[in-house]
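FORM 7B: Structural annotation worksheet

SECTION A. Query
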Amino acid sequence: MSEPIHAYAALEVHAPLQPFDYDPGPLAPEQVEIAVEHCGICHSDLSMLDSAWGHTRFPLVPGHEIVGTVAALGEQVKGLKLGQRVGLGWFASSCLRCLPCLSGDHNLCREIGATIVGRHGGFADRVRCHWVWAIPLPEGVDANCAGPLFCGGITVFNPLVQFGVKPTDRVGVVGIGGLGHLALKFLNKWGCEVTAFTSTEAKREEALTLGAHHAVSSRDAAALKKLAGRLDFVLVTVNAALDWPAYLATLAPRGRLHFVGAVPEALGIRPGALFGGQKSISGSPLGSPATMVRMLEFCARHRIVPQVEYFPMSEVNAALDHLRAGRARYRIILRR
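SECTION B. Predicted structure
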């Protein structure tokens, strides 16, 4: 029997988290066990706790923005060593044999395994994953606040790489929260002219300090109309319904409206609206391990860090309530 992992789990939907011990079983040959130091809280944790996507298994130990040190190595693990500091995000395994994996697109693997889907996550003293997804932290990345980079950060960094966003581009970011605030920081250092769209008046000034050059109300039809034909790329981080045809109209020829937020309703955009300017609509998941390495190097070079608040792991329920109430600025990290 393996040494038990001490965690916090919800035993059923909508239940508060409580101390929970479980036996992880033998460490698989290609697995790494991480001693958790910090774990961020993401809205996806709330969605899993609420069984909003219909595939939550209880008891559930949430947590997928993890930073810690390598505590144990399977006999076939490569490139890692005991005591090394690593990060783990939403994905914890992939098949390594399909064409996407062999092409470096592990995040597009059809057998991708999520850290908190069918397994227990990082609201715990230890967590396990395939070694490919345990990403070493480079010099210059602060382990105390790096956790959100492994979910929120890579979610908004990946499209910049995948779609060739250029330093000369004018880019809009819709929603200034856990994802959006990092998008502003990345895009500013990427060299873009950045416009922030937010429905919260208090966040408009904050957006400018985070890296935006302009801040616009996301529900101001007149302001959106003034931007018609100006933006090369619009990154949507919200999970709310907005006037998407109006955002499409802000795009310049060959512009792209790109979604990383789980918008709950149909977009209401006719295909014909794409034709005139040869515009595109797209979406993407989190990035591959290689893209995560590039993101961390970019953060180290430009001293980009998430804006975070800290809670002790023992106060996990208070931290979840803080996030549900929309008070987080802009990411919460649990500390062991």
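SECTION C. Observations
The longest helix spans residues 289-302. The chain has ten helices and 17 strands.

SECTION D. Sign-off
Analyst initials: ____
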